[in-house]
Structure formats: structure tokens, C-alpha cells
Write a structure and sequence with these properties.
Elements (H helix, E strand, L loop, with lengths): L1 H24 L11 H4 L12 E3 L5 E4 H4 L11 E6 L5 E8 L4 H4 L5 H4 L24 H21 L16 H22 L5 H17 L6 H8 L7 H17 L2 H5 L2 H10 L10 H8 L1 H16 L9 H7 L4 H12 L7 H5 L2 H9 L38
Antiparallel strand pairs: 1-2, 2-3, 3-4
Helix pairs in contact: 1-14, 7-8, 7-10, 8-12, 14-18, 15-16
This protein binds iron/sulfur cluster (SF4).
Length: 405
């Protein structure tokens, strides 16, 4: 493990330096919004940009939301959007210029059909998802960021540049149900983890937690902890969404407290893999040495992705994660093929993806601290038949405190 840590640390340093150097020599091109003015206000001629907006003789004002509300961010930074406002403060035209959200989740958000619902809205409308803006299932955070940035930037431009009065009617501080549900599940699962360390009679609690993980984290929230969260954080593109922070903070905190607890208690893909692994089919017996060597593949792959992401500055390279395809319900044939293969292989090889390929498993394994009392056992869900490396233990607690059964 020490060698792997060194390998990844060196890869990280070289990639960050190379990325920084490349960025200095070839700075990333930002979209020239002026090229798209005609798309948000056809036939209108705008004067040169003054401050943060363009004006026209017809009284139409255009601006990029990024110039006005840069701190409103989706999952991976701001959703830069070009907007034109009519003289009475209504959305005249809208076009998304640029974003770094995960394409699997937000491909629908950029379509003209989706954006059409903003047209004609007044600056005083609420622009709230599920109220006057349609949600896109599995892309709620991005759509909320888009709605919020359109609302806040339009109001600011309307009052400061157009002299219109803004009458805000919505209540501040809406209750964030998804955030609360996730935090509750995390805390209950963590309590279950400590209870099962005390008594094996309650091991079923983990199954309940895993089922809730599939339903809540996977299907409802569609936000399993992903390596993209960490890459976006390191690239200084955190979200402004509370759920995003809850997921990142809880995952990182839990590694400090209980190693790969997230993998063993909450990860929806891990849960599906484990349940499939329980189908009573004879499992392949892989010699321990071969198994150990194969487990190293996830670190090698993780190193490649770190290099690709930090050299190019594009976290999208982390998109090979099967759970992103599965829980976004979107991907190409190759991505779906990988999902099917990773799930089916569990019938013969328990937790195939977690053991050999998962980048989150690699990250959490690297961050796991030493822990005593995990000797492994013949029916370990991770195939740890003998005293495992703690980085390979998902803390199911089946063997905790005992020798081989
Ligand atoms: S080593 Fe023990 S606690 Fe860890 S996953 Fe295997 S059986 Fe569970």
C-alpha cells in the first residue's frame, strides 16, 4: 500500500504540474458570448458591452449569468448562460453557453425544448424547480443551479441596469428535503455500523441500509459519491448545493472514522453488486496471490484517470464509473455494456467492480487508516478469506473481533 500511495502521489504531482504548465502556455478558451447574441435576440443589434451587459435600441438587454452571479454553481461549477431581457423584465431569449456538469445527467437541460419554459417569464416569477420550472429527474442540482442563476442574475440586471423594480415573493430558506434525507440515512447507517460492531445479532441492519442506499442515494437522489466530486473539489469547482457538500463531507469523514464504510453500507452500486453476489451460484476460486494482483488494477486505473483529469483540467475523464451510467439512466452502448458486465460478474465473483476497478474504492482504500480486529472470513462479501489489508475491507463487521469461524 505504501508503494501504491507513493505511485499515486507522484502521478498526482506530475499531472498537476503538467496541467498547470499546459494551462499557462495554452490558456483555456472561454466562450465568446457575443457570437451567440443573435440566438437570444434574433435580428437585434446590440451596442458594445458596457460593464456586465449589452443594450439595444429596442430596449432589450443581454448578459451572461457568469458576469452577474458567478458564485451560483451546479455540481461542477457555474452553468454559464446567455440571457436577453425584454424592456418589461421578461426573459426574451436564453442559451446555455458552457458548463462542466456530468453530461450523462444534464444532456436534456441544454435542449431548446427544456429551455423554452423560461421564455416570457417575469423577473418576479419564482423560477423554482418543481414549481414553475420542470425538474429533470437525476439532474436536480444542475437544474436548480440553472434556475437560480437565471432568476438572480436577471433580477440584478433588471434593477441595476434597466431601472426596473423587483418584487420578490418567494420565502427565503426552503427546507431541503433531499439533503435532510441523505443526512438522516448517513447517520442511521453509521449508528448501525457501531451497533453491529457491538453485537452480531444486528447484522441485518446493513442489508436495510444497503436497500435504502439503492432507493435513496441511487434512484431518488441519483448522487452516489463519485470520484467526480473529489476532482471538482480539487479543481476548485465545488457546487453551491447543500446535498453536494453533505455527500462529500460525509464520505470523507466516514473514511476517517470507519474506513470504507461508505462502500459497505451506502453505495448503491456496491449494494446491487453484493445482492447479486448472494445468488447461490458457485463462485470462482481465485488464488489469493492472483486476487491481490488484480486488486491493484483499480489503483493503476485511478492513476491514469488522475493524470488525464489534471493534465486536461477535465473531470469528465472520471466518467467511466458504472454507477454514473446506471443511476443517470444514460450512456452509450460501451458504458451500458460495462454496467451489465460489472453486474453479471458478481454472480461468480463477489463485488467484482469494488474489488478490481472502482476509483472510489481506490480512493477510500488509500485514505483508510489501520484498524485491528478484522481477520476476514470465508463468506466475506469482498472475498477477503484471510486477514485482509484494511483498504480492502468494507466494514460489514461480519468478522469483526473474531478469528476465522
Ligand atoms: S474483512 Fe470482515 S468486516 Fe471486512 S468486509 Fe470482509 S467480512 Fe466484512
Amino acid at each position: 500500500m505504501k508503494r501504491i500511495r507513493h505511485y499515486l502521489f507522484i502521478v498526482f504531482l506530475i499531472s498537476v504540474s503538467a496541467g498547470y504548465g499546459l494551462h499557462a502556455v495554452f490558456p483555456e478558451k472561454t466562450v465568446d458570448e457575443s457570437l451567440y447574441l443573435n440566438e437570444v435576440a434574433q435580428g437585434v443589434i446590440f451596442s458594445a458591452k458596457k460593464g456586465n451587459h449589452y443594450t439595444s435600441r429596442e430596449g432589450i438587454t443581454a448578459f451572461s449569468t457568469y458576469d452577474v452571479t458567478p458564485s451560483i454553481r451546479g455540481y461542477a461549477g457555474p452553468v454559464k448562460t446567455l440571457i436577453s431581457l425584454s424592456p418589461d423584465g421578461r426573459i426574451h431569449g436564453i442559451r446555455i453557453l458552457e458548463h462542466k456538469e456530468t453530461p450523462n445527467f444534464v444532456h436534456r437541460m441544454e435542449t431548446p425544448e427544456f429551455l423554452r419554459q423560461f421564455l416570457g417569464k417575469s423577473i418576479n416569477d419564482p423560477f423554482e424547480v418543481d414549481k414553475d420550472i420542470d425538474a429533470i429527474s437525476r439532474a436536480t442540482v444542475s437544474v436548480e443551479a440553472l434556475s437560480k442563476t437565471v432568476r438572480e442574475s436577471s433580477r440584478k440586471i433588471a434593477s441595476e441596469a434597466m431601472g426596473l423594480e423587483v418584487v420578490s415573493r418567494e420565502k427565503a430558506g426552503r427546507f431541503n428535503l433531499k439533503w435532510a434525507a441523505y443526512c438522516l440515512l448517513f447517520l442511521l447507517s453509521l449508528a448501525g455500523y457501531f451497533i453491529t460492531r457491538g453485537s452480531k445479532r444486528f447484522l441485518r441492519l446493513r442489508d436495510i441500509s444497503l436497500v435504502l442506499g439503492i432507493g435513496l442515494v441511487g434512484l431518488w437522489l441519483s448522487t452516489p459519491f463519485s470520484i467526480l466530486h473529489i476532482f471538482n473539489l480539487l479543481l476548485l469547482r465545488p457546487s453551491s448545493d447543500m446535498l453536494w457538500y453533505a455527500i462529500v463531507i460525509s464520505a470523507v469523514l466516514s473514511v476517517g472514522i470507519a474506513g470504507r464504510f461508505y462502500c459497505g453500507w451506502l453505495c448503491p452500486f456496491g449494494a446491487l453488486s453484493e445482492f447479486l453476489g448472494r445468488v447461490p451460484l458457485r463462485k470462482w476460486e481465485i488464488p489469493l496471490e492472483t486476487d491481490d494482483r488484480w486488486r491493484g488494477a483499480k489503483y493503476f486505473l485511478f492513476g491514469l484517470v488522475i493524470a488525464a483529469v489534471f493534465i486536461t483540467g477535465r473531470p469528465g475523464f472520471g466518467n467511466y464509473e458504472t454507477y454514473v451510467t446506471l443511476f443517470s439512466f444514460h450512456g452509450n452502448a460501451l458504458a451500458w455494456g460495462l454496467v451489465a458486465l460489472s453486474l453479471l460478474l458478481n454472480l461468480r465473483l463477489q463485488r467484482f467492480w469494488c474489488r478490481y476497478l472502482c476509483p472510489v474504492a481506490a480512493l477510500m482504500g488509500l485514505l483508510s487508516r489501520k484498524a485491528e480486529g478484522y481477520p476476514g472470513r470465508h463468506d466475506c462479501p469482498m472475498g477477503n478469506r484471510q486477514m485482509p489489508l484494511i483498504s480492502e475491507c468494507i466494514r460489514c463487521n461480519r468478522c469483526y473481533g473474531k478469528g476465522q469461524p
